[in-house]
Amino acid sequence: MRETVRRGIATYFGGPLDLTDPAASVYRPGRLLDYGLSTVRAYAGRARTPETDYTAGLDPARGMGARMVVALPTVTERRVSLGGWKALTFQVTLGVTHLGMVPHPELAQDDLDELLEAVVGLVRADPTLGGCVLQAGESQRGIVTTCSEPLIEGDASRTLINASVAFDCDVYLEG
Questions:
Q1: Residue-range definition of the domain harbouring residue 141
Q2: Residue ranges of the alpha helices (H) in the chain?
Q3: How does pLDDT run along the chain (175 residues), one tens digit per residue?
Q4: Is there a contact between 102 and 64 (Cβ–Cβ < 8 Å)?
Q5: 155-165 burial, b if ≥16 CB within 10 A, otherwise e?
Q6: How far apart are the first and last CA of the chain?
Q7: Which of 2, 125, 151 shows the shortest CA–CA distance to 70?
């Protein structure tokens, strides 16, 4: 079930599994490409992120882009006495890394803000995340967005920012 939920979330945000490089396990192009989300990975897996994760499918003139990694750090299972169902609650963290190669770091921060709003908007628009869960973002925790301080390199022409969107997803199983 864990893999099904993880891959379902990756597909919802990132689009279909890109079969041109099966070992990479990347999902693209997704519904947030216009907001700069180039790649979604169901699993972290690589020590060094290829730059194409930030730029694949984007207009090079854009000068910035992002990638997302789906993390499921905690799953809580409870038996529901009515009818013998099991309720699973997945804590989901969508780790977003944004790379801006523009002359002003503020432009990269603005771009990331718009992307994060679009991610939250997709959770609100379809709480089933394309049908892979019963509901997402509806728990008492709600939807939590965090953003780090930007890492500005050299002459400020390269900005890296880490962010996350976190929420709970509920799934029910028989048995």
A1: 2-174
A2: 2-14, 52-55, 105-125
A3: 999 999 999 999 999 998 887 667 899 999 999 999 999 999 887 667 888 889 999 999 999 999 999 999 999 999 877 777 889 999 999 999 999 998 888 999 999 999 999 999 999 999 999 999 999 999 999 999 999 999 988 777 889 999 999 999 999 988 7
A4: yes
A5: eeebbbbebbb
A6: 13
A7: 2
Number of domains in the chain: 1
For 81, other C-beta atoms within 10 Å of its C-beta total 7
Structure tokens at 29: 């192009």
List % helix, strand, coil for the chain (3-state, nearest 5). 25, 40, 35
The structure's pTM equals 0.92
Distance of CA 93 to the CA centre of its chain: 7
